[in-house]
UniProtKB/TrEMBL annotation, chain A:
InterPro entries: Ferritin-like_SF (IPR009078), Ubq_synth_Coq7 (IPR011566). Pathway: Cofactor biosynthesis; ubiquinone biosynthesis. Its cofactor is Fe cation. SUPFAM superfamilies: Ferritin-like. It comes from Labrus bergylta (ballan wrasse). GO terms for molecular function: 3-demethoxyubiquinol 3-hydroxylase activity; metal ion binding; oxidoreductase activity, acting on paired donors, with incorporation or reduction of molecular oxygen, NAD(P)H as one donor, and incorporation of one atom of oxygen. Component of a multi-subunit COQ enzyme complex, composed of at least COQ3, COQ4, COQ5, COQ6, COQ7 and COQ9. Interacts with ADCK4 and COQ6. Interacts with COQ9. Fe cation 2 binds at residues 129, 165, 168. This is 5-demethoxyubiquinone hydroxylase, mitochondrial. One of its GO terms (biological process) is regulation of reactive oxygen species metabolic process. Catalyzes the hydroxylation of 2-polyprenyl-3-methyl-6-methoxy-1,4-benzoquinol (DMQH2) during ubiquinone biosynthesis. Has also a structural role in the COQ enzyme complex, stabilizing other COQ polypeptides. Involved in lifespan determination in a ubiquinone-independent manner.
Length: 204, 328
């Protein structure tokens, strides 16, 4: 049995027991400003993954039995959400209070886009994934600007997730997302909604 | 202003000295009771100011503080040189404010005064008089209460935040014990009960005047701060109780605990039983209520899920019947 908890051998500076279960994904914030910035980022990322899961659940509910079912199944990445759940818990970040809203809104978006057919579902996926990738990219830029070494693990996680989302985006394009009539309108409407959701989730 | 303070200090010290002739200048502590007293006071101040962390505080406040203490010493002894010799670091000529450890920030000074003031709360209540009395025990002028713009509110908020940090330390210590395997993890209900009881017991020395403190916390300009302290307290307790939820449970758990804490606090201020046994019984019952409610909520949820399953089954049957369910 170790004399001290395992973590204390790796982070000699951290004596507060509040950091006992930190898995080192995000560093302990040095001041309240950094804590606020990290809180916002993690909160909105968590809300985003939660919403994405609900969108795919909505799409599956409508198209699950059809040919596209297996395709959408592949996108249902619960691991992203679980990872963010872990990170939120470790860093004691408050989840957004609008989660029930994203629950319903995501499901409705997924289901209604799927009702437009396979192309509708693909178009919705393309729009959402593009939004999310852009959002992750801006977070990566912000963290790189601040201090790349400090946030290495967090950057790694975000980059990995962004790559996954881009993959979904490309798959959506491959499967005739653009062939739906009103593609431009649908895509922009969904992206506008995503931007609003991101803005609000950071704060509430 | 400085002259007035100097006069006040001089007047008070001279009254204290009574008929004693000013002592011969000597650093020898055995000389006389008076010099010993002065020397001890000087050393105490020197030690205290040395133990403070090096801060980049505003030079004017430190200048003022040191001028006050320096002038106090000057008034009480005929040889300022001896005092300067025994306190070489607190020269008020150095205005950089960043040299060495003997300069403290305004916040640290405020904390010291408020800590000292807590002793006088049973006597003066949560008020400026208590803060003034506290300042005086630190050999500072009672006019230093002018630093506290919020008056009694500062004292109460300081006490609340002090109690919260004490509780966090206790909980962290317990958590460490459990991590190291030296103690058992308590059940959630027991943990919450113990945490709230520990926290409320910190009010016992001030329980007579606690209603006054509570009303001060409810003043409109104090509400943001008192809410912040309350939410930090509740978040800490749930964190150490093992809550790692990341959905609406996060909010409902904290809301429930806030309700429990506030109502138990109210019961405590009018409880006259021995060792506040009625309060702890009330607390037990409230926690039991919350546990029951959580159980009921789970049941409702599973019933709801079963109902939804049933409805989906019915919809599926309908789809089959109407032929909508063919693979395209």
């Amino acid at each position: 049995m170790l004399e001290r908890p395992v973590w204390s051998y790796f982070c000699p500076g951290e004596s507060s027991a509040a950091e006992l279960t930190r898995l080192q994904c995000a560093p302990a914030p040095r001041d309240s400003e950094e804590k606020e910035m990290l809180d916002r980022m993690l909160r909105v990322d968590h809300a985003g993954e939660y919403g994405a899961n609900r969108i795919y659940a909505g799409q599956m509910a409508v198209l699950g039995r059809s040919r596209t079912g297996p395709l959408i199944q592949v996108w249902d990445v619960k691991e992203h959400l679980e990872k963010f759940n872990e990170i939120l818990a470790e860093n004691r970040v408050r989840p957004t209070a609008l989660l029930p809203l994203w629950n319903i809104a995501g499901f409705v978006l997924g289901a209604s886009s799927a009702l437009l057919g396979k192309e509708g579902a693909m178009a919705c996926t393309v729009a959402v994934e593009e939004s999310i990738s852009e959002h992750y990219n801006s977070q990566i830029r912000a963290l790189m600007e601040k201090d790349p070494e400090r946030y290495t693990e967090l950057l790694q996680v975000i980059k990995e997730f962004r790559d996954d989302e881009m993959e979904h985006h490309d798959t959506g394009l491959e499967h005739d997302a653009e062939s739906i009539p009103g593609y431009w309108l649908l895509k922009n409407a969904i992206q506008l909604g995503c931007k609003a959701a991101i803005y609000v989730s950071q704060r509430v | 202003m400085a002259a007035l303070l100097r006069g006040l200090r001089a007047g008070r010290t001279l009254r204290g000295l009574c008929s004693v002739v000013s002592a011969p200048p000597a650093a020898n502590p055995q000389c006389s009771g008076l010099t010993r007293g002065i020397h001890c006071a000087a050393l105490r101040l020197q030690d205290e100011s040395k133990s403070d962390k090096p801060p980049p505080s505003s030079s004017s406040t430190t200048h003022h503080e040191h001028y006050q203490t320096h002038s106090a010493e000057q008034a009480s002894t005929s040889d300022p040189a001896a005092e300067e010799a025994s306190r070489p670091n607190t020269s008020y000529q150095d205005q950089s404010g960043e040299q060495g450890e003997e300069y403290e920030t305004e916040e640290q000074l405020q904390v010291r005064i408020l800590n000292a003031a807590l002793e006088f709360v049973p006597l003066h209540g949560w008020s400026m008089e208590a803060i003034a009395a506290g300042a005086e025990t630190l050999d500072l002028s009672s006019a230093s209460t002018g630093m506290f713009y919020n008056g009694a509110g500062d004292l109460v908020l300081h006490f609340v935040s002090h109690c919260n940090s004490q509780l966090t330390e206790i909980l962290a210590e317990q958590h460490k014990q459990v991590q190291l395997g030296q103690a058992e993890q308590k059940r959630t209900a027991d943990f919450l009960r113990d945490a709230v009881e520990t926290r409320l017991r910190m009010h016992i020395p001030y329980i007579e005047s606690w209603p006054q403190a509570m009303s001060i916390l409810l003043l409109p300009h104090n509400i943001p701060n008192s809410l912040k302290h309350l939410s930090t307290l509740v978040d800490d307790i749930w964190f150490y109780a093992g809550d790692r939820s990341t959905d609406m449970n996060w909010y409902t758990k904290r809301a429930a605990l806030t309700g429990i804490y506030n109502t138990t606090e109210l019961v405590m201020v009018q409880d006259s039983s021995t060792d506040f046994q009625d309060t702890w019984n009330f607390l037990d019952n409230r926690i039991q209520d919350v546990v029951n409610m959580a159980g009921t909520a789970k049941q409702v949820q599973s019933t709801g899920e079963a109902v939804v399953q049933g409805l989906m089954g019915a919809a599926f049957t309908l789809k089959n019947l109407t032929g909508l369910n063919q693979k395209r």
